[in-house]
Amino acid sequence: MTLIGAGVPRPDAADKVRGEARFVDDLAFPGMLHARVIRSPIPHGRILRVDLSRVATHPRVHCTVTPDDVPGENVVHVIYDDQPALASDVVRYVGEPVALLAAEDRESAREAETLARVDYEALPAVSDPLEALRPGAPVVAVPAAAEGRDESPNLFNRMRLVKGDVKRGFAEADVIVEGEYRTGYQEHAYLETQGAIAVPEEQGAITIYGSLQCPFYVQGAVAKVLGLPLAKVRVVQTATGGAFGGKEDVPSQVASLAALLAWKARRAVKLVYDREEDVLTTSKRHPSVVRYKSGAKKDGTLTAIEVDFVYNAGAYQTLSSAVLWRGLLTAAGPYRVPNVGIDGRSVATHTVPNGAFRGFGSPQVIFAHESQMDSLAERLGMDRLEIRRRNALRVGDETACGQKLKESVGVLETIERARELSRWEDRLRAVAAFNASHPHRRRGVGVSSVLYGVGLGAKSPFLDKAGAYLKLEADGSVTLAVGTVEMGQGLTAALSQIACDALGIRIDRLQLTPVDTTRVPDSGPTVASRGTLMSGLAVLDAVKKLRARILDASNGLGIPEEEIPARLNEIARSFFLRNLDPAVEGWAHAEPVDWDPETGLGNPYFVYSYATHVAEVEVDLTTGEISLEDCVAVHDSGKILNQGTASGQVEGGIVQGLGFAVTEEIAEKDGRLKVKGFTTYRIPTIRDAPPSPTVEFVEALYSPGPFGAKGLGEVPLMAAHAAIARAIAHAIGKAVSAYPLSPERVRQALAS
Amino acid sequence: MLGEFEYVRAKTIKGGYSLLAKAGGEAAVLAGGTDLLVNIRAGKASPRLLVDMKGVKSLDRLTFSPKTGALIGASVPLNTIVENRGIRTRYPGLAEAAWTVGSYQIRNRATIAGNLCNASPAADTAPPLLVLDAILEVASPRGEREVPVRSLFVDSKKTSLSFDEVVTAIRIPPVPATTRTAFLKRQRVKGHDLAILNVAGRYDPATGDLQIAIGSCAKTPVLVPPLGEPVPPDAPIPELARRLEALAIQVVHPISDLRATAEYRRALLPVFIRRLLEALLQQSDHREAIR
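^ Those are the sequences you sent over. The predicted structure of the assembly is below.
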């Protein structure tokens, strides 16, 4: 029996389909209060006076909280501690929390919120990152958080990667292409909005129940803001209705605010954002400007790249330094480039802090590097797949940052398989024939190849670890606890499969417990496509230890090894009767990584995943309408543990990539986001998905991974959007340089 | 979050309008509620009283005959209209428009009366009902009256109905079997979405009678002034489209909003007029142009 590969139905699916899964807003505790956040209505200003007297006298209001009530440090702890939990003197973005209230019911909380009076002295604001870098621009960043303050007070971080001799590289090139690319905001649009419940416990402890990706981040943040030892803070993840990175750092803020109220009230406090509040005040994908210069020889071989990119970080650091770092290490794409100069900056502006979003700083540079590859192909008269094939990384090659790839490099296979599955040459001919026969409809085909460094890498190597707790119950069933979360991606299925496969038991004999910081050690965040890999290894470690004990016990009972799975209940019973220890802990840590911030070179990630997507679109030249007709997605994420959930992730990534490239847009004016929930922010619907996408996995195994697995979660979106954008450019025969490629932008491009 | 309001389920039409009259403009009629409840939640409406008319049996009837036309009760959900054989065959443009309102679940609740009375410039069922000369049957303490859809819309989100009037039904006059109707809509995504532009038309090749209406392009859905002469089925479409566009721009005033810019709407107008004419005169299916 093997549970690895084809996989099992998701153990968490039935409850979710039936509506029985309990999300944070479904939970209630005795005496629970409801919180509202009083927020800044302006992008930049000095707080002159906070008058909550009318709020406090509302008959249903239990208490209010201002910065004076913060028992610990008034910060939302992420990487830099520059973001206050509650702004105390200056507000730096529209929606920044200023004060809190808790009322007996949600309606009263809402009503009381309108009674707050906060006076501000409005200050000049800057919302464009390039403007924020100009001398004399309004200062956004807290000085300690601006690592680049010697250059500009708003320069959060500047990172460079220099390899070889870029000048010489361009001198050797037969053709050089340059472009500037812009991408906008992308909102996560998870089904369930942000929410947390803080419950004060006995002995001065507190428990947080929340919709989140990173229980240990929340534990750290709440401990800091309340001034408590970590041991006094317990975090329990509730069923989480989607995250996509949006619940990486933001729940630390949500839980901190709920905790401040609960601590003062000495009662449970629920804080659940409504959709408008969530969209306006929580992190999004960093808007970007990327300038890219590429040189290649006549045969398509890359000789040099030079990249300069700027990310709009928003008012506080949150995760921007890590987002920038991944952008830096992804900018060259999955290609051999001997001479490299990359320069990235993340800049503070008076806008909502941007953070993690599937791809984490890589989609912005991918749009650029894939557009550049097509420009080179066009100038050289080469086939677009061929130029990618020629430059694709192989085992033994060195990446742009000088990392020698030892194993598990499947990008070439993804390109070759995508060519076969898409019937590339036939398709190009069919598209040309279609275009010749229609007056105003144009079809186009695009391709995109990507690499993704799995895990957190050398930016925060101390986070790439994971624990597991495995207990053999007296009836032979098994309880498993881990520290990374199910957020819709299918981790429950993957980890249950790994444990049950190794123990030889049925999937319904194992229960994965809710993630709870008291059950396992800090296992790092559930981000960076690392859940299956890291927790999978921890589970395997635990299984190995438990199996050794089971083998011992079965020997004592005279049970042959092959009968162990069938007779596990007898063995478990003997553990109970003979007072044997039936519980084990598993532990895993990633292979070592290293990176030199001076040169940008090193071995920043322990392994990479790869993908190639081919997209076909149809564009209506008269209206600019775009239709995604087909997509072929080929991925190398090492061993795929569950084909069903993996294919689902790829299909979802295609649709989310379509949204990023084509339909999703947030206009911003004077620091205000012009968006109101989903009537103004359009995510693609199921009708916008290609009718029958082709998804296939080439499995370049990663030997240290569980069964050879790497990571998959983020890669589908990363590859999809650029393939779609390039297909649009191919269809209309014009350059495209800014997302979203809305009908109006397409018409503008056509007119150019 | 919903504020406080009273809710009454009326049992008779009279009971309904009496409550509305008593509340003196502070009540709202609850039909499907798919706009009303959203507006209350967003703080855009704060009625003291909701009068639910779905308890009135006679309002959920839909009758159709080729001789008398269609009578659609005010509580009939859009999906029932979409699925009605008579509507589909005789007024396909209306069925098509009703089908594009919201999602399937929304259409199980939303009504055509509500779609009209909400008076959104983008109301999808308005353009086909305008070209079909549909009439609202309205009841109030002052008796019953008929309000042509053509005189219903006063401004964005404003109708000519008085606060104590209840729409009881929408009557669509019979049309000859030769009459063609069509509806086209441009939206941001292929799934349910509000219109950037919607157009509907009615054409009878036997008489040459042609009428078109445009939505999302002015403060209300608008009827394009008539050409003043019959249009033969083989009329050259480019020229006809130009003439209709010239008439249309007298009545439309496209604006920029979060769905599209005024320029884009203006640019779509001739395209959609032309496609509508192709659908009406040549019966080409433009819904398939973009899958």
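The longest strand of chain A covers residues 302-314. Chain A touches chain B at residues 106-107, 110, 274, 441, 618, 620, 622-625, 627, 629, 663, 667, 674-676, 679-680, 682-688, 691, 743-744, 747 (CB under 8 Å).

Shout if you want it in another format.
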